[in-house]
Amino acid sequence: MAQYRSSLLLPEDRLLKIRDDFIKEAQAGLRGENSSCLMMASMMDVLPNGEETGDFFAVDIGGTNFRVILVSLSESRGEVARFEMEDFAIPEEYFSCHADRLFDLLADSLVSFAKRHGFSGKKTAPVGFCFSFPVNQTAVDAGTMIKLTKKFDNEGFVGCDPVQMLQQAIQRFKAPFKVVALLNDSVGTLAGACYEDPNAKVGVILGTGTNACYVEQVAKIGTLAKGATSRPRMVVNTEWGNFTAASLPITQADREMDETTPNAGEYHFEKMVSGMYMGEVARRIILQLAEDAQLFGPSVPDELRVPWALSTPALSKIAEDDSWVLSGTAQILADDLHLPASRCTYSACSTVKEVCLMVSRRSAALVAACLAGLLRHIGRDGSHGGMQATTVAVDGGLFEHFDAYRGFLRDYLDLLLTPEVSAMVQLKRIRDASSMGSAYLAAAVTASP
Ligand code: ADP
């Protein structure tokens, strides 16, 4: 166990090294040099400021569901007069059908949603399209899809422009919508916060995966073609999930899990941090302890060997278990890992809880280190003198549902920033941020000259 404590609980100097390595990678990526962080220009050179008015729609896809929303923005600054939202499950066959059919499904759902909510359709309505896949963005409303991720395996996707595809599908329904903005969930999260908070400068996703974006000076984005924008600032999508550096504390359990993933050798940071992987990393460490230290008795329960058997929501319940003699942990081990009750002694449960806590703390520590790096890079960590209030908008199931995790993240930020700076940095949980932000961005793009 001591070996896991020393590899998972990261001391301050190690976190500062990770922070500095992240800054180096981010700055190399910005200059267009070889880097694990792509630092992609999002082409979003306007952000909502609460002064937008009118009716705007958003279509948001990226996981197992997609969502359509309508917002009516009133004349009173930052006030949403009307908000309608519907979630749609993606039927199984749509994960492998031709991309045209999937876009038809999105367009059909948008049109029927608008009808259901009494949208008259007399005027063409702007739509923000939140499309959370890797896209090489060429304009606010154009881009080329680089690769499919998650469960999607559709022909006709890679190389397509998602905006054109959705617009063509809308035209097949002869519906009065114009897709005016293309973005991913981290940009949507930042935009969602900007609408009501002018201090919002960074957007972070902590869900199945992780990513961050921030407001950058155009002059610093080396990869941006000259004349791409006449505005001074643009949102940069870090793709920090792929961040890697020698200072990252990659353990044997991380390496072994990585080998079983479709993108082995990539996205090391995401695999140490995000909801898709934390449970599996913990399971592998628990298995190792069962083998080396007889955690569950002389033999290793076969059930512990089942890959992905411990989900991150289960890990979070164990990490937060304050039940008498850890009966909650024993129950999860019985329910999720099918371990016999006789094997789940108090001592075993207590070790399992410690592993879950350490994996959770490591994730929060790594996110805090990179966040501190991003804040330093944009001059918001007090190191360049002068302190400004800064809001970091966060969305995603890991941050939203795992209460203790939010506390860990705050603690590590407090450790890495001075108390004066930390007090100026707010981590703001933004619910439904990517969808709301997409509609607000559609509004901001429409309002901008
Ligand atoms: P996505 O990132 O796929 O768009 P979400 O933002 O809802 O979707 O995040 C889902 C992820 O959040 C899941 O993969 C899961 O790991 C994580 N998650 C959900 N509930 C919890 C929880 N109670 N504790 C920890 N993680 C959770």
Automatic annotation (TrEMBL):
Q: Residue ranges of the Hexokinase N-terminal domain?
A: 3-195
The record's Pfam families line, in alphabetical order, gives: Hexokinase_1, Hexokinase_2
Pathway(s) this gene product operates in, as recorded in its UniProt entry:
Carbohydrate degradation; glycolysis; D-glyceraldehyde 3-phosphate and glycerone phosphate from D-glucose: step 1/4; Carbohydrate metabolism; hexose metabolism
Annotated Gene3D superfamilies = 3.30.420.40, 3.40.367.20
**Which Enzyme Commission number(s) are listed?**
2.7.1.-
Alphabetically sorted, this entry's keywords are:
ATP-binding, Glycolysis, Kinase, Nucleotide-binding, Transferase
Instruction: Quote the InterPro entries the UniProt record gives.
Output: ATPase_NBD, Hexokinase, Hexokinase_C, Hexokinase_N
Record keyword Cell membrane present: no
Instruction: Outline the extent of the Hexokinase C-terminal domain.
Output: 201-443
Q: Taxonomically, which superkingdom?
A: Eukaryota
Family the UniProt entry places it in: Belongs to the hexokinase family.
Q: Give the protein name, as stated in the record.
A: Phosphotransferase
Tell me which species this is from. Answer: Coccomyxa subellipsoidea
Lineage summary: Eukaryota, Viridiplantae, Chlorophyta, core chlorophytes, Trebouxiophyceae
